Amino acid sequence: MQRRSFLKNASIGAVAGTAAVAAPVFAQDAPTLNWRLASSFGRSLDTLFGCSEMFAKYVSESTDGKFNIRIFPGGEIVPPLQVLDAVQKNTVEMGHSCGYYYFGKDPILCFDTAVPFGLNARQMNAWMYEADGMKLTREMYKPYNILNFPLGNTGVQMGGWFRKEIKTVDDLKGLKMRTAGFAGTVLARLGVVPQQIAGGDIYPALEKGTLDAVEWVGPADDEKLGFFKIAKHYYYPGWWEGGPQISLYVNQGEFEKLPKSYQVIIDSASRAAHTAMTARYDNANAAALRRLLAQGTQLHAFPRAVMDASWDAAIQVYDEFSAKDPKFKAVYDNYMGYRDTQVPWFRVAEASYDQFIGAAISRKK
Ligand code: CA
Question: Which of 22, 73, 116, 118 is deepest in the core (most CB within 10 A)?
Fold first, then answer.
């Protein structure tokens, strides 16, 4: 019986194979769909914005052009920081955004992007795809009628551009700094006055002196926005964003109406474009950092005392949020517990390898 059905299947396969060569068509009953995706990012941020374009291209090509997704830059049909709301209401079927932009709705959403002293990009991928991350983040978005998929990760970000050097924790007091969400709450404990400003408005504010400091992403994007022309001191690391993940939002009801094949294509196309974003950033950041340094940018590590004070402030905020909300505490414990099991491994082979190579290259110069 088993052998007979194997032969039957094999012959069907052979016939289908021949037919596919003669007339390549995607499943003929597959629907033609035109969806809209609202991005939180502008076209000029080509790595962030380009990731959603790459995703849409993979989806279209995998369906012989039947499933089309049109991408709208932030502000064109939906304001950049209201993408979640637009997907929730089904104004658009899809969005490309960051959970931590919606910190004001619920801080728990930050775990889908990045939180202070959290996971790096590889650990975030491991948490999402191999551990509890996907299940927990999907539970977070359920009340918003959204199904999330990872769609990009910038890698660890920079600590930002400062007009004046930061030598002590006191130097942070009264500093007007552009930053977003959770980071702002922690920095405020150290005396920083956080300002949430959209990408395009940051440069004029820095130029006018309305801002003393700004953090955005890393060398490639920061160079495009021109901050180095005004603030010379470029700090690392961006301890509030160890591996920020960008997300694809799909309206839950619309997703459920899709044929299974389209659902699988969304999943696999998002995985492919997700990986591509980190590669693009790694490639572009190294070159941009060299150019910035050649133009007089001064690179500094945050002093250890500033890092320690920031760590303590972050723990204080985590404890307060955890005490207020058991749901926050459950995700926090899972996420940070995962970090604490990952880091001892990363320190062994990965970190020692990177350190050795880094030192060897410096000696060579
Ligand atoms: Ca940032």
Answer: 118
Q: Using the mean position of ligand 1's atoms as its centre, give its distance from the Cα of residue 222 in Å.
A: 10
Q: Report whether 81 contacts 40 (CB < 8 A).
A: yes
Q: Read off the pLDDT of residues 174-220 as tens digits, 9 standing for 90 and up.
A: 999 999 779 999 999 999 999 988 777 899 999 999 999 999 999 99
- CATH code: domain of residue 251: 3.40.190.170
Q: Which residues surround ligand 1, an ion (CB under 5 A)?
A: 157
- Asked if residue 271 is part of any domain, the answer here is yes
Domain containing residue 7: 3-153+244-282
200 belongs to a structural domain: no
CB 141 within 8 A of CB 106: no
ω into 143 cis (within 30 of 0): no
Q: Distance from the CA of 223 to the center of ligand 1, in angstroms? A: 14
Cβ partners under 8 Å of residue 33, min gap 6: 66, 67, 68, 258, 262
Which position has the token pair 């089904």? Answer: 90
Ligand 1 mean position to 82 CA, how many Å? 18
CA of 360 to the centre of ligand 1 (A): 31
Instruction: Encode pLDDT of 105-150 as tens digits.
Output: 999 999 999 999 999 999 999 999 999 999 999 999 999 999 999 9
Q: What is the Å distance from ligand 1's center to 187 Cα? A: 13
The pLDDT value recorded for residue 255 is: 98
Contact yes or no for 27/131 (Cβ under 8 A): no
Q: Are 80 and 41 in contact (CB under 8 A)?
A: yes
Beta strands in 154-273 (DSSP E): 160-162, 176-178, 193-195, 213-214, 233-236, 245-251
CA angle 56, 278, 137 (to 5 degrees): 75
